[in-house]
Amino acid sequence: MAGEQTMGNVQAIRKPAESPEPFIQLSDVGLRYGESGEGVEALRGLSLEIAKGEFTAVVGPSGCGKSTLMRLISGLTPSSAGGVLIDGKRVDRPLKTVGMAFQNSALLPWRTALENVLLPLEVVQPHRRDFRRNKARHAEQARAMLAKVGLNGAEGLYGWELSGGMQQRVSLCRALIHEPEILLLDEPFGALDAFTREELWDTLQQLWLERRFTALLVTHDLPEAVYLADSVHVISERPGHVVHTSHIDLPRPRTPEICFTPRFTEYIHELRSHIQRKTPAIAGASQ
Amino acid sequence: MNRHTAAVMNKLSPWLATLGFFLIWEASCRVFSIPTFVLPAPSDALAALIKDFDGIWFNARHTLFTTLCGFAVAIVFGLLLGIVVGASSAVYRALNPLLVGFNSVPKVALVPILVLWFGIGTVPAIITAFLVAFFPITVNVATGIATMEPELRDVLRSLGAGRIAILTKVGLPRSLPYFFASLKVAITLAFVGAVISETVASNVGIGYLMMSASATFLVPLVFAALLVIAAMGVVMYGITALLEKRYAGWAMRKRR
């Protein structure tokens, strides 16, 4: 297969000697929207490796195809060139072991917070088959999860009764309740105020430290990327590809004080210097 | 005005407005001494209603029955068609011109054809009520399903959900407010359809009663029949509104 050949080449060139077998591997991936490939070219020649249990962030100018990258990994959009491998298997249909959260919390408005968190268990196999029988246990699990993110007492509230930050917490719980191996986050805190955002960084870090899922965070907030991630990849302008990777070597758990350390600032400077902005960016073009 | 009286006014306003409407009507008829055979005053219509109550009630019951039959068929058919059209953009594209074209045909024009097929009486009235009422249901349900947020679809697809699961977990619940909104329109349209068909081709029902009453210049009786239809329409609308509140109340945010 052509995809596997390319993958072999890229592996030889790019794979850092010390890292273990990558869990997620994108090799020379390209993506062009439109039915016969005449549309916008979102990604070209993008290669990326993510180890199992690693927290990775992807940053870049607006409209560089960051969100597209997420859809590629989850299998929601097939790539037009190159290959996406997860755990050695080629992704050609939507994965079933992925949790997702978006800038818009995408809660179901007719469900309470608790019922929203339970949604994946009603849909994902093998939980789906036994959902009714295990409902009490699942509800307990969901309640514990909500309590963990600081939402005890909010189980019975509907989305519109919750603040933006609380909605995102529910959304995080929903993305993780079925214990997916991969968590994909598309600017999940983008619409929140600065204080709420920092609180949620800690919530997310806490969850990750406990469960060690493989996380991919798409963001345009450099401090957020550095605070949360083990490695941060900078994507170029469209058609997007990786132009720089920083490995963030800061101790965990990271606390808000770390944002004021010189090393933190250095990382941010380093990343910023690699973000190209030829033309004034059109805000929101990536959505 | 303090908050308490404001709340009372809020509750009373629909009754006051209706009462005011009838008072102005009554007063105009008397002040301008409009002849009863042109525009009877509400009191004349009410008198006719009381006088011929048995006859009116018999016909009104029949109209209510035909309307509800047509409405029920419209709900089932409209819902199913709406789901199919909303869930598949291919079906939507294929059927859209047909649906719009069909809806543009005046349904009165179809009544003679229905009479040709089914004879005079209840069946054409039921079918007309159905034909007039199903379209808004279909359009609304289809809209509710088709306008699903892409993020929601992504969340479900990334959980391995197929089309059916996406439809039952998100599409259908999400389209419920649209569905109930359309019921409120559809029930009043169903009355229109049934009465229209009865005026053209029936020997029973409010429509028939109005036709025969106006043929003999019993104009107060015509208006009495109109009032009865209006009242039935308001009651049925109220029932669908209650159902809406019960089953799609989440879409109507309360201020807390």
Topology record:
The complex is a heterodimer of chains A (287) and B (256).
Chain A: H1 2-14, E1 24-32, E2 41-50, E3 55-59, H2 66-74, E4 81-86, E5 89-90, E6 98-102, H3 113-123, H4 135-148, H5 164-176, E7 182-186, H6 194-211, E8 214-218, H7 222-228, E9 231-235, E10 242-247, H8 262-274
Parallel strand pairs in A: 3-8, 3-9, 6-7, 7-8
Antiparallel strand pairs in A: 1-2, 1-4, 4-5, 9-10
Helix pairs in contact in A: 3-4, 3-5, 5-6, 7-8
Chain B: H1 3-31, H2 42-51, H3 53-87, H4 89-104, H5 111-118, H6 122-146, H7 150-157, H8 163-201, H9 206-215, H10 219-248
Helix pairs in contact in B: 2-10, 3-4, 3-6, 3-8, 3-9, 5-6, 6-8, 8-9, 8-10, 9-10
Structure in words:
The complex is a heterodimer of chains A (287) and B (256). Chain A is α/β, with parallel strands linked by helices. Chain A contains 8 helices and 10 strands. Chain A has helices spanning 2-14, 66-74, 113-123, 135-148, 164-176, 194-211, 222-228, 262-274; strands at 24-32, 41-50, 55-59, 81-86, 89-90, 98-102, 182-186, 214-218, 231-235, 242-247. In chain A, strands 6-7-8-3-9-10 form a 6-stranded mixed beta sheet, sandwiched between helices. Chain A has a 4-stranded antiparallel beta sheet with strand order 2-1-4-5. In chain A, α7 (222-228) packs across α8. The two termini of chain A are 33 Å apart. Mean pLDDT of chain A is 82; it is low at 1-18. Chain B folds into 2 domains: 1-33; 39-251, MetI-like fold, CATH 1.10.3720.10. In chain B, 82% of the residues lie in helices and 0% in strands. Chain B has helices spanning 3-31, 42-51, 53-87, 89-104, 111-118, 122-146, 150-157, 163-201, 206-215, 219-248. The longest helix of chain B is centred in the C-terminal third of the chain and has 39 residues, at 163-201. The interface between A and B is medium-sized, with 28 and 22 residues.
